[in-house]
Amino acid sequence: MKTRDHSRLVAELSETYAQHAPKCASLNERAKRHLLDGGSHAMRLTQPFPPRMTSARGAWITDEDDNSVLDFWQGHFANILGHNPEVVTSALARAFEDGFGLQTGFEDRLQVEAAEVLCRQTGNDRVRFTTSGTLSTMYSIILSLAFTGRDAVMKAGAGWHGGHPWGLKGVSFQEGPDAGFHFVEGRGLPSAVTDEVLITDYNDPDRLRDDFAQHGDQLACFIVEPFIGAGGCMPATTEYLQAARELTEQHGAVLIFDEVIAGFRFRAGDLGNLYGIQPDLATFGKAIGGGMPVAALAGREQIMKLIGREGGSKVRFSGGTYSGHPASMLAAKTFMEYLVAHENEIYPRLEDLGERARSIAETAFAEQGIYVRSTGGARDEWPGGSLSLLTFPHQEAKEVRSPDDVRNPEICDVELGEKVLQLALLVSDVYTMHGLGAVSTAHTEEDLDFLAEAYKRVARLFKKHL
Length: 466
Prior knowledge:
Shape: globular
Strand order of the largest sheet: 4-12-11-10-7-5-6
CATH superfamily of the largest domain: Type I PLP-dependent aspartate aminotransferase-like (Major domain)
CATH class of the largest domain: Alpha Beta
Largest sheet: 7 strands, mixed
Radius of gyration: 22 Å
Number of domains: 2
Low-confidence stretches: none
Distance between the termini: 14 Å
């Protein structure tokens, strides 16, 4: 399938957006004088320039040009209740007013209480908090290497486990004779580490069995997302995760569930619970922090104790200056307790909103004769959820069930579904990631109507250019 040329459409949309948000455009030029590419996180740096927000509340942000933008990025998929939910902001405001909340360098009660909630809701024995998902997954792998005495690490292609040497292989799909997800993502990474990272296929239990038959006795761990994010916003099958559990036990490897995205997103706890599978280690982030920088590594006591004095402090995981930050722990405790108390209201609503958002997107393009498929919806044993990616398959009726389906330009028009669609929607004051993104409980009926009109405008525009 020949790749379509969208350069003319992108140029037109870029010019329209520059006229729509001139202050954001000007601030972007100023930002690039000192900030690389104008910012500090690559995914936020939308081309030709990102919206620069001045306030955020619920489902909406306001940018420097006073445009109100309906947001489906929602804090890197962290904001289940929308931006700045009062349940968290009011607790933080009271704490700051009472002289509590900034960095002290001391321990406090909140970290204990947050740990109790997390362990109780996820079935883990011990936890150590840190400040980013990258750190939590990195330490989970280091801990696995120490526990097993092995060096090899297995992950699924397209899985994003953070910006560390074990994580920066097999993330992006690369074309060519050896097309796929087995490449190192950039320079500067030690080959002694990346050569030990083995890539398997997501949701392919037969391939997983073959890989374990060949490499299982050398593996320290298999790290996998029960709901893969960047690889396509799709859940693992029960058969796949059951095979992962059985194979890691058989070969003496550590099973790590990366739940930085999934944890507390689909229930008030870990997603592994819905599959009836308890991993050896699990990582959490995003939703557990309630909008503050909180991440965690949790797991079985036998493995986790290698970090602490009881296990001889064999693994150096001191945490970092801002680990257990008072305001962050207050936000985490408050937010997780709220999700637990309101679980029966929050998660069914998120499922319903997610399904309706997917239907809105698919219907808008179908009315213009453009075939699209969304991920994250109900299928097989999966009830559907609040995260979605929108794809433009080249062949009508093509199912998208794996990262290869989503990220391979031979199968889907990847540029149209990512870069072009995001910019086209932004011109209509809707911000999406991967063509759609995340709904929150703050999204309303009126917001979905606004989304529908935006998709209809974009679909009509695409019809003229395709």
